[in-house]
Write a structure and sequence with these properties.
mainly alpha; 4 helices
Length: 110
């Protein structure tokens, strides 16, 4: 019983701080969603750039097929893998925040 009161008192003490956080979120919601949107888009942009760097690394070292090609192939593979991981993360985050992005677009259009 005593632990329950202590737990409730802890939650009551946190309410003013949480209210302050929510007030800030509400006042900056539009800017926050816009920043989140561009943050998610950067995953796609940098993922594509990383894949292109990986392909460039692979194709620029094709003349070394016989000698130590494994080093550029490893670097290219690592870059392509990390680019794909960023692009997958872009699609995951875009799906996760689709409702927020739609709400922002509707608010902007109205």
């Amino acid at each position: 019983m005593e632990d329950r009161k202590t737990n409730e008192e802890d939650h009551v003490d946190k309410v003013p701080f949480l209210n302050k956080i929510f007030e800030d979120l509400i006042s900056d919601a539009s800017d926050l969603i816009r920043d989140l949107y561009w943050g998610v888009k950067t995953y796609l942009i940098f993922g594509l750039m990383t894949i292109l760097f990986g392909l460039q690394e692979l194709f620029s070292n094709m003349d070394r097929l016989g000698e130590q090609f494994y080093i550029p192939a490893f670097i290219a593979g690592t870059l392509i893998f990390s680019g794909l991981a960023q692009i997958i993360n872009f699609f995951r985050l875009r799906k996760k925040y689709a409702r927020l992005f739609k709400a922002q677009a509707d608010l902007k259009n109205s």
